[in-house]
Design brief:
Blueprint (H helix, E strand, L loop, with lengths): L3 E3 L5 E2 L35 E3 L2
Antiparallel strand pairs: 1-2, 1-3
Length: 53
Amino acid sequence: MQEYVCTVCNYVYDPKVGDPDGGIPAGTPFEDIPDDWVCPTCGATKSDFEPEE
């Protein structure tokens, strides 16, 4: 599964891990995260993430 990186703080969303503290279970693809989810590190919006290269 594709990882995504926050363009504000460089936090990497790893779908294998998810964001348990943010209510996103492990195994959740980035595309399936709700649009109102924010970066757990800096609070940036989902639109501030880009696919990890």
